[in-house]
């Protein structure tokens, strides 16, 4: 429910819908690269390509909208920002309140070792660890779900020591990706996918056989 999300945020970040409005958080799993992105790029080869992943997600969510011709469906993407430069929605908060992934933050550590340093939080999925992404939000403004029960996200990094390790790795060593394996995972990004996301955006077109 939109109300679960709005309840944990300041009014400036609230979604402008009634509390009982139905919403879905969209995640991409490790297999997205082979099952969705590569076929999309191959099919759309002759069209203008901006950011291939963003366009791929947009394409697939537009197809979801088409499945509900009689419903109003609003889509928000993780990369969209408002004129105020605020993001349209806070992806990690949305994933947490939907029960999709646990958003570990500084407040989840009792004995804080970081002093005045800025520490960013990170979502961990119980099956994929950090090998996933939050891509968007599907909202159904005409569907009110009064009796939907809120599922709690799985607290899979449950010890103080592991939480400190996770936030340390994510904030200070994120490039090496070790934080993604803070728990035992069922599936990881392929080597090809790791290379793609480790490559500066302007050079990724070449990896997909595209000219910019």
Automatic annotation (TrEMBL):
Catalytic activity: apo-[alkylcobalamin reductase] + methylcob(III)alamin + glutathione = S-methyl glutathione + cob(I)alamin-[alkylcobalamin reductase] + H(+); 2 cob(II)alamin-[cyanocobalamin reductase] + 2 hydrogen cyanide + NADP(+) = 2 cyanocob(III)alamin + 2 apo-[cyanocobalamin reductase] + NADPH + H(+); apo-[alkylcobalamin reductase] + adenosylcob(III)alamin + glutathione = S-adenosylglutathione + cob(I)alamin-[alkylcobalamin reductase] + H(+); apo-[alkylcobalamin reductase] + an R-cob(III)alamin + glutathione = cob(I)alamin-[alkylcobalamin reductase] + an S-substituted glutathione + H(+)
Residue ranges that the Swiss-Prot or TrEMBL entry lists as coiled coil: none
Main location: cytoplasm
The protein's Enzyme Commission number: 1.16.1.6, 2.5.1.151
Cofactor dependence: FAD; FMN
Family the entry assigns: Belongs to the MMACHC family.
Protein name: Cyanocobalamin reductase / alkylcobalamin dealkylase
Organism of this sequence: Piprites chloris
């Amino acid at each position: 429910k939109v109300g679960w999300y709005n309840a944990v945020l300041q009014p400036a970040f609230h979604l402008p819908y009634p509390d009982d409005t139905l919403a879905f958080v969209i995640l991409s799993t490790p297999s997205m690269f082979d099952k969705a992105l590569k076929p999309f790029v191959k099919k759309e080869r002759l069209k203008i390509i901006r950011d291939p992943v963003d366009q791929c997600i947009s394409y697939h969510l537009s197809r979801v909208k088409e499945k509900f011709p009689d419903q109003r469906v609003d889509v928000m993407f993780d990369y969209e920002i408002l004129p105020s430069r605020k993001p349209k929605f806070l992806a990690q908060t949305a994933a947490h309140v939907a029960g999709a992934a646990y958003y570990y933050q500084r407040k989840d550590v009792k004995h804080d070792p970081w002093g005045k340093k800025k520490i960013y939080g990170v979502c961990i999925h119980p099956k994929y660890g950090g090998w996933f992404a939050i891509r968007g939000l599907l909202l159904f403004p005409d569907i009110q779900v009064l009796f939907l029960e809120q599922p709690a996200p799985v607290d899979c990094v449950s010890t103080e020591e592991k939480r400190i390790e996770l936030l340390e790795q994510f904030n200070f060593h994120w490039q090496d990706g070790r934080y993604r394996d803070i728990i035992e995972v069922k599936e990881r990004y392929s080597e090809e996918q790791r290379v793609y996301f480790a490559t500066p955006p302007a050079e990724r077109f070449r990896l997909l056989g595209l000219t910019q």
